[in-house]
Amino acid sequence: HAVCPKCQTVNAVLPERIRQHPVCAKCATLLLPDHPVDLTDQTFERFTTRSALPVLVDFWAPWCGPCKMMTPAFALAASALQGQVVLAKMDTEAQRAIPSRFSIQSVPSLVLFRQGKEIARTAGAMPAAQIQAWVRQQL
Ligand code: ZN
User: Fold this and answer.
1) Residue 47 CA to ligand 1 centre (angstroms)
2) Which helix (H) or strand (E) holds 74?
3) Which of 26, 60, 101, 129 can bridge 67 by disulfide, Cβ–Cβ 3.0-4.6 Å?
């Protein structure tokens, strides 16, 4: 299953179609985007628990310099990991409930979820290659 980044509809995607850029049955948005998806307190739960692929969430804040520095690296990693891991971002200034539930102490923090459960986390800005290497180590 893949959760639509735009309308949150859960779509069933056949494994052999993952590489063929499947789109949402309801709104035609690309289901496994090559760019980070923005999550909110409202969309986080459904998105992380119903996605068959692991979801890597970058918890960031608008005032955080290292977060801004990592933005292009995270986007590059999203493109490199397309179809294997879904990359998402959560603004810890705008969203409070989920960062608090996962006790996010510093930004940027990267937390990897599988079926909604945290399987790994790391903190601090990293270049794209290091993000990819770290994620692959956890899978
Ligand atoms: Zn949709």
Assistant:
1) 12
2) helix 65-80
3) 60
| Per-residue pLDDT at 15 | 87
Give the Cα separation of 23 and 26 in Å (integer): 9
pLDDT band at 56 (very low <50, low <70, confident <90, very high): very high
pTM: 0.95
Task: Kindly state the tokens that stand for 51.
Answer: 């996605």
Has 64 been annotated as catalytic?
yes
Strand partners, 18: none
Catalytic, 7? Answer: no
- Which SS3 state, helix, strand or coil, does residue 18 take? helix
Contacts of 53 (CB under 8 A, 6+ apart): 2, 32, 83, 84, 85, 86
For ligand 1, a single-atom ion, the residues with CB < 5 A are 4, 6-7, 9, 24, 26-27, 29
Residue 19 clears pLDDT 90, i.e. is over it = no
State the distance from the centre of ligand 1 to the C-alpha of 7, rounded, in angstroms. Answer: 4
Q: How many whole angstroms from 10 Cα to the centroid of ligand 1?
A: 8
Residue 2 · residue 53 · CB < 8 Å: yes
CA 50 to ligand 1 centroid distance, Å: 14
